[in-house]
């Protein structure tokens, strides 16, 4: 379901796959060849949400802007290119860099900034305001930087969005 809110309409690339069971509302931009899967909710009702190209929002994710920028405005969320957001993740941060994997059921809290080529482990909780440098592997509750992303871990970063792009094309071909 795609809805306007306060006169702001989602802007979705024609090449993006948006499941009919996803809910996208308000000031949301989704880039070329990105995909949003069933049960995902992307709310651009308080602040803008920008999702880059070739990014994946898997089933049952929640992305919502809501971090105060000033007393009169809400900070936007910017999610880069080639980002894979795992099933059930909750994203309420400021920035997610490109070529990053956010693991299943992770939670990224207000004002956090995740660099590029990062992996946030499944079920990790990235705390409010945490800044995660490029190439970091973060795990735990609360999330802590455990080291640099390994070449083996980078397989998920490189192959995940490409695999989902092929799957999304199959869904679009079948009008799902």
What does this protein structure show overall?
The chain is mostly beta strands. The chain has 1 helix and 22 strands. It is 13% helix and 38% strand. Strands 1, 2, 4, 6, 8, 11, 13, 14, 16, 17, 19 and 20 form a 12-stranded parallel beta sheet that branches. Strands 3-5-7-12-15-18-21-22 form an 8-stranded mixed beta sheet. The chain has a two-stranded antiparallel ribbon with strand order 9-10.
* Total number of strands: 22
* Uncertain stretches of 5 or more adjacent residues: none
- Rg, please? 15 Å
Looking at the overall shape, the CATH architecture is: 3 Solenoid
Q: Supply the CATH superfamily name.
A: Hexapeptide repeat proteins
Residue fraction in strands: 35-45%
Q: Could you say what the CATH topology is called?
A: UDP N-Acetylglucosamine Acyltransferase, domain 1
The helix/strand series, from N terminus to C terminus, equals EEEEEEEEEEEEEEEEEEEEEEH
Q: How many structural domains are formed by the residues? A: 1
